[in-house]
Design a protein that fits this description.
- The complex is a heterodimer.
- By secondary structure, chain A is an alpha+beta fold.
- Helices cover 61% and strands 9% of the residues of chain A.
- Chain A has one domain (29-139).
- In chain A, strands 2-1-3-4 form a 4-stranded mixed β-sheet.
- In chain A, a hairpin with a 5-residue loop joins strand 3 (129-131) and strand 4 (137-139).
- Chain B has one domain.
- Helix content of chain B is 61%, strand content 0%.
- Chain B is mainly alpha-helical.
- The longest helix of chain B has 22 residues, at 3-24.
- Classes of the chains: A alpha+beta, B mainly alpha.
- The A-B interface holds A 1-2, 5-6, 9, 12-13, 16, 19-20, 23-27, 29, 34, 38, 41-42, 45-46, 49, 95, 99, 104-105, 108, 111-112, 115-116, 118-120, 123, 125 and B 4-5, 8, 11-12, 15-16, 19, 22-23, 26-28, 30-45, 53, 55, 59, 61.
């Protein structure tokens, strides 16, 4: 009787092991939704990069992008920049939400967003603008 | 004689709840790693050993 229960317990414990390992390892980011968001954002970056470099668009402290100085953009392009920024922010929010959801914790969305906000700035090229903790713009 | 199965049941419950607890906390390090991977792809910041992205090198600084 005891050895049976012990055996059962050991089997159950062993079954949990891969789950534990999984929890300690990487976050799931290979879902179709995340991949497609990545692709669109990668495509859009080709257009946004010049505006990051000129300082017209900057990285906000909450993991999004914003038009920092519209006067740096030729009048004819200003509407296009606004659209790019709006589309980028929509995708970024969707990305944070999808990562949280793909890992079974929709409530992690804000923390994912916080992590990203730091990593975007960390990986930004020199000369790009970002918001510091108090919200003022800083040139990297 | 019935205490042993009881003890096992309690231990099992503790193990299971511990597993659940672990997963409640936000895995900050894993999130950072995931963020870096995604940002590298979106901004096409190449590291050696990365999966080859279908990217042209004209975006590089």
């Amino acid at each position: 009787m005891h050895s049976q229960i012990l055996r059962l317990w050991m089997v159950v414990a062993l079954l949990w092991m891969p789950l534990l390992a999984f929890a300690a390892a990487d976050l799931e980011i290979n879902t179709p939704a995340i991949s497609s968001l990545k692709d669109t954002m990668q495509g859009r970056h080709g257009q946004l990069a010049a505006f990051y470099a000129s300082g017209a668009v900057g990285l906000t402290r909450d993991g999004l992008v914003a038009v920092r100085d519209a006067s740096l953009v030729p009048l004819a392009q200003r509407q296009a920049v606004n659209s790019l920024v709006a589309a980028e922010n929509q995708d970024r929010l969707a990305l944070y939400r999808e990562i949280a959801r793909a890992n079974g914790h929709p409530e992690w969305e804000e923390e994912v967003r916080g992590t990203f906000s730091q990593r975007w700035v960390q990986k930004a090229a020199p000369g790009w603008w970002y918001q510091n903790h108090s919200g003022s713009w800083v040139r990297k | 004689m019935r205490t042993f199965p009881m003890a096992m049941a309690v231990l099992l419950a503790a193990t299971v709840s511990a597993c659940v607890t672990i997963n409640i906390y936000f895995p900050a390090a894993a999130a950072e790693k995931a963020a870096d991977k995604i940002i590298d792809e979106v901004w096409q910041l190449k590291k050696q050993g990365d999966a080859p992205a279908p990217a042209k090198p004209d975006e590089q600084k």
